Amino acid sequence: MAVPAVHERPAGRADGRSPLATGSELAFVAQAVVAGAVFLATSGMRDDHGLGIDPGAFSALPVVFLVVVLAGYLHRLLFVLPVMALARGLGGGWWAAPWAAGLAAAYAGWAAADWDLPYGWTLLWIAGPGVLPVAAASYAHHRSLGWTGMAARVGAAAGVALLLCAFGAFLLERTGIGAYEPPRLERERYAGEWIGGGGAYRLRLGENGEAAAENLPLVAPAGVWDACSGAGTWTFERGRESGGLFDRARDRVTLRIEGCGPMRDWQVAGTAERPELFSVMGDPEDLHPRYAETLHRP
Predict the structure, then answer these.
(1) In the chain, N or C terminus with fewer CB closer than 10 Å?
(2) What pTM did the predictor assign?
(3) Closest CA to 257 of 289, 278, 236, 233
(4) 51: exposed, middle or buried (Cβ count in 10 Å: 0-12, 13-18, 19+)
(5) For 204-223, how does the pLDDT look when each residue is reduced to its tens digit (9 = 90+)?
C-alpha cells in the first residue's frame, strides 16, 4: 500500500509565519514601549512650557496602542517584507541586518531630498526603529529560539530597560542632573521683534518700554480665535529666587495693550542663544485642553 507523501513546511515556518517577520514585530512593539518610557523619564530635561504632563493624556492610551500597531504594520511593509524577499532571492540570512540598513539609507536619502532634511539625523531616526527589530529577529532566528524563546528574550530585555528608565527618572527627579533651566537674560535682550504662529502674529518691544501687538492671541479667558492689535507698554520682571537647589522660576514680560483687556504674562523659555516667550492658553478648570503659544525671534 502506497504511503502518501508528506509535505513538510520549510524550517522555521511551522506556524505559517516567517520567524523574521514574527520576531521583528515583537521587537518593534517592545522598542516602541521602551522609547515611550525613555521619553517620559527624560521629560524633566525638556521645557514643558509650564504645562507638565496632562493626566488626561493617559486616556489616549488605546489610541496610542492603535498607532503602535499601525506603525508595526508599516515597519513590516517597509523593512521586513523587502528583507525577506532579498533573503529568498540572494540567500544568506545573516545579511538581514545589513540589507535593512541599506533600505534605511535609501529611505533616508529620499526623505532628505524630498523634504530638505539633514541626511545624518534622518538616517538615525529611520534606522533606529527600522533596523534594530530586524537585527534582533535575525539573531533569534539563527539561534533557533522560536516564538516562545523570542518572546521571552524580548520581554526580559524590555523589562530591564523599563526598570532602568524608572530608576533614571527617579535619579533625575531627586538630583536635578540635566534638568531644564530657563535662560536668565538681561532686559535689553527682550527688546525687538517677536513673531509666532508661523508669522500670523507679531509683538514689538521697545527699549523704552513701549509695545506694539499685531493679531496677538488673547491669553485671558477668550474665544479660541480671539486676537488683539494695538499699542501699549511692557515691563520685565526677574524670576523670584526661591533659594532652592533646583529653582526653576522664570523671568517674565508683562504686557499692557490698550483695548486688549487683562492679559497673562509671557514667560521666558528656550535657551540663551534662542530665547522664547510663551503663555499658557486656556483655563485649568475648563474642559478644553491647555496649550502654550510661543513667540520667537524672526
Answers:
(1) N
(2) 0.64
(3) 233
(4) middle
(5) 999 999 999 998 876 554 45
279 beta partners: 293
DSSP letter string over the chain?
-PPPPP-PPPTT-TTSS-HHHHHHHHHHHHHHHHHHHHHHHTGGGS--TT----GGGGGGHHHHHHHHHHHHHHHIIIIIHHHHHHHHHH--GGGHHHHHHHHHHHHHHHHHHHHT--HHHHHHHHHHHHHHHHHHHHHHHHTT-HHHHHHHHHHHHHHHHHHHHHHHHHHHHHH-TT--------GGGG-EEEEEGGGTEEEEE-TTSEEEEEEEEP-SS--TT-EEEEEEEEEEEPPPP---TT-----EEEEEETTS---PPEEEEE-SSSEEEEEEES-TTSSSPPEEEEEE--
Residue with the three cell numbers 539633514? 118
Q: What would the pLDDT profile of 152-195 be if each residue is shown by its tens digit? A: 888 888 899 999 999 988 888 888 788 888 888 899 999 999 99
Distance, in Å, from the CA atom of 206 to the CA atom of 212, rounded to the nearest integer, reads: 8
